[in-house]
Amino acid sequence: MKRLLVGLLAVSMLVLAACGGSQSQAPGGSTSQGGASQGSASTGSSSSGPSTSAGDKVIKIGLIAPLTGSVKTFGESSQKGFLLALEQAGYKAGDFKIEYVPGDDKGDATEGQNLATRFITRDGVKAIVGSVTSGVTIPVSRIANENKIPMITGTATAEGVTVNEDGSRKPYIFRACFIDPFQGQVAARFALDELGVKTAAVFYDRGNPYTVGLAESFRAEFEAGGGQIVAWQAYTEADTDFSAVMTNVAALKPDMLYLPDYYNKVSLLAKAAKEKGLDVPMLGGDGWDSEDLDFEALAGNYFTAHYSADDPSPAVQKFVQEFEAKYGHKPDSFAALTYDATNILLEAIRVANTDDTDAIRQAMQDLKGFQAVGGSISFDEKGNPIKAATILKVSADKTYEFVTTVNP
Fold first, then answer.
1. Which pLDDT belongs to residue 312?
2. What is the mean pLDDT of residues 31-46?
3. Nearest-10 Cα torsion for 26, 32, 35, 39
4. H-helix or E-strand spanning residue 298
């Protein structure tokens, strides 16, 4: 362990020299209760929270999220959920005051790993919330697990977040969201049973474990239910022109399109489909959930999500009201899930009432029936919550209509 930490420290010092140790402030430059800055630090070099004195017991929590870059709306929402949870807890858990160290991974795996390294080797972080996307969270989870730092992501759904390539558990890693296989299965059943389709064209980013996982689980369930995949179309993150491929897919006349990617790429795919006359239902995953989605191109279509602001459950409505009161708009699933993840971590710290990371990890694993916005949460043997999925419908007025809830 000592050799690993020394190695990580060396890497972090080199990266700091390259980055210049600069900080950036969050949009609006606002501050949270207790004087804690809501700014984001891409270097992860400063901590925020209530003022502390020499005799205080303090635990530092790191937040890793994409606050800039192509999926920055995910990170901005996640940060808001994180800060709201800390504020409501009074920046305390048990006998400990909480300080947080923010970091912007920019949606880039290397940035995320650099942040995790600095959090652990220089900033004294004892737990991590994040990241948001699976492509960043998976490599970050390896660093956290190797250094015995409890980590919980609100939104990274790929199976590889909490398990190694050989399927063995990463004991220090958890998540507050359901995993890709369940999400893909729910989408396939909805397509077959509710939309009544028989054929589908699937588009996925071959280099993104999130989209690959969703596409594969959708295909398996769709075909098992009697459906036929007429087009299995891969692309890369750099691709932006889908005109030619949509021409080819349109000729196959699929009953629907499955688009399991993030909002920016899905918007391009949907627009290209419309331009080629592919006026068929489109279905996707939780990556659609963003204010920057092309609502005009995707109006009337569906995606699987973790929660709906219109869900009538008391826990959801309480959270929505509190979030709106603070930020002036309704929370999306990224805010809700990171809020849940942060509260789960705070509860584990409260129960353990120590800064010993193994005790915090064990307390999190032992949680049973924790009442969260996303429902009652207990963890399975792989650190995944057992919870329901929600189906949402996109409206042209930039809202989502709650359709139904699907239990495991």
1. 85
2. 38
3. -10
4. helix 295-298
